[in-house]
Amino acid sequence: MTKDSDIFKGGKILPIMEEFYTLQGEGYNMGKAAYFVRLGGCDVGCSWCDSKESWNEDLFPPKDVTSIISNVKSNHADTVVVTGGEPSLYPLDYFTKKLRENDILTMIETSGAHPLTGIWDWICLSPKKYSPPKGDIYSRAHELKVIIQHKGDLEWAERNADLVNDDALLFLQPEWSAANDIMPILTEYIMDNPQWRMSLQSHKYMGIP
Q1: Which of 114, 192, 116, 128 is nearest to 184 (CA)?
Q2: pTM
Q3: How far is it, in rounded angstroms, from Cα 106 to Cα 100?
């Protein structure tokens, strides 16, 4: 369940694992400069997660979000991407409100495992089978990005595509360790089903965070 807002002073402090300025590597906004804020804590637990060190919230003492905003501005970034971990665990209204007040675009990458708070310019929903989305995230998502490890995951992708709003962009992304095997399958699938697009973890090819 979503964390108690009082613990985080209504979202004025959050468990920040790391923050860095880089290029977005995945999905619709691939190649766009963005300041990433990775929140610690996740109860989804994907076996192929490439940031498992983020799962334990206790390793990341809550930090005042005003310092994060200062870091964003000092890097002259105009976009913040909140990721995790699983950011839907936390109260994000205050943080996103302050970002917007500073003319900073707000984006999030979430499994939607918990009802989402916050004011978002872009919501990337990446649903996971073992902890499916909750709340109104399907209707709010601008982008659906489904990680494909096995061919059978395509059925999961289609089930979620039926639930998002008609304007949501649809992406299939090969799980990194299985990319060589699954890429030909996804390529053929997308050619047969052109409502989907391919998403790659381009930052890994570029050697950036």
Answers
A1: 192
A2: 0.94
A3: 7
**Statement: residue 194 has pLDDT above 80:** yes
CATH number of 5-206: 3.20.20.70
Q: Nearest Cα to 89, choosing from 34, 14, 147?
A: 14
**Do 182 and 150 touch, CB atoms closer than 8 A?**
yes
Q: How far apart are CA 127 and CA 160, in angstroms?
A: 8
The per-residue pLDDT for range 58-72, each reduced to its tens digit, is 899 999 999 999 999
Cβ–Cβ < 8 Å for 116, 110? yes
CA–CA–CA angle 169, 170, 176 (5° rounding): 130
Q: What whole-number distance in Å separates Cα of residue 7 and Cα of residue 202?
A: 36
Residues in the chain: 209
Q: How confident is the model at residue 45 (pLDDT cuts 50, 70, 90)?
A: confident
